[in-house]
Amino acid sequence: MAVMKVKFNQKKRVKLAQGLWLMNWFSLFAGIVVFSMGLFLKIELRKRSEVMDNSESHFVPNSLILVGLLASVFNGLAGKICYDSLDPAKFAKWKPILKVYLVLCVLFNLFILFVVLICFLLRGSLDSTLEHGLKNGMKFYRDTDTPGRCFMKKTIDMLQIEFKCCGNNGFRDWFEIQWISNRYLDFGSKEVKDRIKSNVDGRYLVDGVPFSCCNPSSPRPCIQYQVSNNSAHYSYDFQTEELNLWNRGCREALLKYYSSMMSSMGVIVLFVWLFEMSVMIGLRLLHTSLESIANPEDPECESEGWVLEKSLKDTFKSTLENLKNIGKMNQVDAGAEGAEGDGAKTQAVSTVS
What we know:
This protein is mostly helical. The chain is 61% helix and 2% strand. The chain has nine helices and two strands, in the order E-H-H-H-H-H-H-H-H-E-H.
């Protein structure tokens, strides 16, 4: 029994072709939108590539760009097919490739669905990428004189100001690394010597943070040095007072920013996928309704269109059988080639003898 079997007359076939032609142009526009979203996301990720550990995060924007390009190509071609279907002479040239085109459409829609899923599920990978990238970026914050790293201080400072965050997981992360360059340390000072000697790795660690961690909305002047020393500041309690530093870590801020962006894009691509599925089903109905016309010389006659000629179960079985037959044919061909090779070797040995 055919799936989604529909009866058509000439008027219905024309309306279907015209409707699909219009839908394909809407889908082409949607493809341009998806392409633009992928390009925007790629630019946003490149802006902060210094604080990301690897290039895996670009898989989503690259996939969106590819979906946008393929959608434009597929829907532009489908629009031409629908337009030519109104003229039997023009439609005849599309008949040999239409089945192959529909198979490619199925694969394309599966790819779109895969892209939708990764837009929602790539949060864990992005979290790990940001955690390691920010950690390494903070280590290089002080290397303002090192080629290739001299820009890191500006990158981290601008990031903390823009996203109102501090450190990787919080401002205390700055206490665990030396973020002040040796160039600006007085190694003749007793305080500097004592701090370096008190550290196993010989680093100059302070309970302070860069200026970009300061919250300008706080009424109190920023306390960025000796943050945990209550006696160093008047009327100050490190444990209870609300600090005038950003409490949120930059990993959490960036993760929220990119996750919400990718989730929104995932929803849009999901709607595009549903629209593409509708176009593909409509094109299949148009194809089968034109193929099943009993008398091609009489375009006014009725015909039947369907999505699948057999039931889902029968279609699945026949597909498996076809795949098995293809596998057997390949094995036979390989065996025949092997036999020919052995025969040639035997003939060569006989000739030598």
